[in-house]
User: Which sequence fits this backbone?
C-alpha cells in the first residue's frame, strides 16, 4: 500500500529545511526527501559569512547540518531519496521515489534548487573549494586585493565582475564571443570599470597551481588561423555561465519560465497547481541567496498550513 502524508517536501537546501522546521512545528508531520545532493548547493561552498545569526561565519556543511537538526528536533521525517516521477494534478498528489516507492501527498513543497553550470573541465573539480567558485556573493570576500577571473558574458557575469571589482585588485572577464550578451547598462558598467579587463573571444583550457588556483590557461580565437594560447595569473576562478533549475521531473505539469524556473504567483510560493508550492532557488532566478531561500521555505510551509485548514 502507498504511504500517505499531508506535507511532502522535496529537496534539502535552506528552503526545504526551513519549510520542514515550520511544517513540523505546525504539527503537519512533514516528510522531506533530500535528493541527489543532501544539503544542497551550500555544501559545495566553504565559509558562509552572510547568513544572519552567525557573526563569526559558518561552513556550508555546518549550516545545513544545523538546519537539518532543527527540523528533526520538531519531528520532521528526513529521508534519503530522489524524486523520479510526479503526478501533481491527481488528488492526492503521487510522487515516486527512486523509481519504486510511491508517496501520496495532500501538499507538496518543491525546493529542489538550481545547479550552477560549469565548463566541464577536470580542473574545476580538482580545485573545487580551492579557488573555483560559482558564487561571487558567497566567496568574493576571500579574494580581497587578489586577482580573479569571471567566466561568462551575460548579466550574471557582469554583475559578479562588478561585485568582485569592489573587493579584488583586478578582475578578468573571460568571454567566448567578441561581445557581451549582458544588458547595455551592465555592459557599460563593466567597460568603464578600471579594475575589469574583458578578454573577448577567449576560452579556458585549464587551471594550474600548487595548493590552489594560481592561474588559467586560455586560448583566444580557438580553431582560427590566428589562434593564440596564453596564461593569466589569478587566485580565483568564478563561473557565471548560468544556472539550471532542477525542475526536469515536474516540467510537464508546472508552469516554468523559458529557462526552466518554476513560475509562482508573485510574492507567494503558489504554483499553477493548487497544493503545490515552490521555494528557494528553483523558483528564483534573481536573488538566489541562502537567506532568501529560507524565507520562501517559511512562506511555503505557512501556505501549506492554510491550504490544509481551508479544506478540513
Ligand atoms: P546567460 O545565459 O544570459 O549568459 C550566460 C553567459 O555565459 C553568456 O555570455 C554565454 O556565452 C556564457 N556561456 C555559456 N556557456 C558557456 C561556456 N560553456 N563557455 C563559456 N561561456 C559560456 O546567463 P545569466 O546567468 O547571465 O543570466 C540568466 C538570466 O538572468 C538572463 O536573462 C539575465 O538577463 C538575467 N539576469 C538579470 C540580472 C539583472 O537584471 N540584474 C542579473 C543576472 C541575471 P554566449 O553569449 O556566447 O552564449
Assistant:
Amino acid at each position: 500500500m502507498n504511504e500517505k502524508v499531508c506535507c511532502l517536501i522535496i529537496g534539502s537546501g535552506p528552503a526545504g529545511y526551513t519549510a520542514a522546521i515550520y511544517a513540523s512545528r505546525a504539527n503537519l508531520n512533514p516528510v522531506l526527501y533530500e535528493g541527489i545532493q543532501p544539503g544542497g548547493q551550500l555544501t559545495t561552498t566553504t565559509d558562509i559569512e552572510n547568513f544572519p545569526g552567525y557573526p563569526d561565519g559558518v561552513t556550508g556543511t555546518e549550516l545545513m547540518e544545523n538546519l537539518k537538526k532543527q527540523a528533526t528536533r520538531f519531528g520532521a521525517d528526513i529521508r534519503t531519496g530522489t524524486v523520479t516521477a510526479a503526478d501533481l494534478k491527481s488528488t492526492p498528489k503521487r510522487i515516486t521515489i527512486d523509481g519504486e516507492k510511491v508517496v501520496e501527498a495532500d501538499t507538496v513543497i518543491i525546493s529542489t534548487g538550481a545547479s550552477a553550470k560549469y565548463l566541464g573541465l577536470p580542473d574545476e573539480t580538482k580545485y573545487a573549494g580551492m579557488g573555483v567558485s560559482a558564487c561571487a556573493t558567497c566567496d568574493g570576500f576571500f579574494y580581497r586585493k587578489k586577482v580573479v577571473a569571471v567566466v561568462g558574458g551575460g548579466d550574471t557575469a557582469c554583475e559578479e565582475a562588478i561585485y568582485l571589482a569592489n573587493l579584488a585588485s583586478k578582475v578578468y572577464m573571460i568571454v567566448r564571443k567578441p561581445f557581451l550578451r549582458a544588458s547595455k547598462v551592465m555592459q557599460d558598467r563593466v567597460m568603464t570599470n578600471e579594475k575589469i579587463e574583458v578578454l573577448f573571444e577567449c576560452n579556458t583550457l585549464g587551471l594550474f597551481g600548487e595548493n590552489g588556483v594560481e592561474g588559467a590557461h586560455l586560448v583566444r580565437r580557438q580553431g582560427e588561423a590566428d589562434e593564440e594560447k596564453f596564461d593569466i595569473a589569478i587566485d580565483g576562478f568564478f563561473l557565471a555561465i548560468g544556472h539550471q533549475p532542477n525542475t526536469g521531473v515536474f516540467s510537464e505539469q508546472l508552469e516554468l519560465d523559458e529557462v526552466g524556473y518554476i513560475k509562482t504567483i508573485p510574492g507567494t510560493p503558489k504554483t499553477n497547481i493548487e497544493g503545490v508550492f515552490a521555494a528557494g532557488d528553483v523558483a528564483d532566478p534573481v536573488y538566489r541567496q541562502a537567506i532568501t531561500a529560507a524565507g520562501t521555505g517559511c512562506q511555503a510551509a505557512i501556505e501549506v498550513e492554510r491550504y490544509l485548514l481551508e479544506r478540513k
Summary: The pocket of NDP is lined by residues 119, 151-157, 159, 176-177, 181, 241-242, 285 (CB under 6 Å). The longest helix spans residues 290-310. The chain has two domains: 3-115+243-311, 118-239. The helical segments are 14-25, 60-73, 122-126, 136-139, 155-165, 184-191, 290-310.
